[in-house]
Amino acid sequence: MLIARTPSQEIRFVQQLEELGFRLMDTLVYYRRDLQRMPLPEAQDAALIRPVQNGEEAAVRAIAAQSFQGYFGHYHADPRLDQAACDAAYISWAERSCVDRSVADEVLVAELDGQLV
User: Fold this and answer.
1) How many Cβ atoms from other residues are within 10 Å of residue 56's Cβ?
2) Gene3D superfamilies from the entry (predicted)?
């Protein structure tokens, strides 16, 4: 499996890849907000945002399973891949991100009333 990301203005490159047998599976959209011009509103019952702690991997795994349920990303878009394995890949990625610094430099969690949310 090869995953290639390219800016949308490089559509000719994408077409060349498709001519070679590759398939476009999905696209990404990135949003920005200028916090100087448009600050975030004050939150009600704000959650504490903090680094994940050792022993919280199971909670992160459960949150990832719920968060990615029904998600349709580039793995799911490929009909050659098993859908259950695609679901498991996202859950595994979230869990590995907590314990392996080669996967993620830092994982932040939200805690509300003593529970990860």
Assistant:
1) 16
2) 3.40.630.30
84/18 Cα distance (integer angstroms): 26
Question: What's the CA gap between 2 and 92, in Å, rounded?
Answer: 19
Distance between CA atoms of residues 114 and 35, nearest Å = 29
Helical (H) or strand (E) element with 58? helix 57-67
* SS3 of 85-99: HHHHHHHHHHHHHHH
Find where tokens 């259950």 sit. 84
pLDDT in tens, 78-106: 999 999 999 999 999 999 999 999 999 99
Q: What is the dihedral of CA 40, 44, 50, 53, to 10 degrees?
A: -150
Q: How far apart are CA 86 and CA 82, in angstroms?
A: 6
**Alpha carbon distance 71, 66 (integer Å):** 10
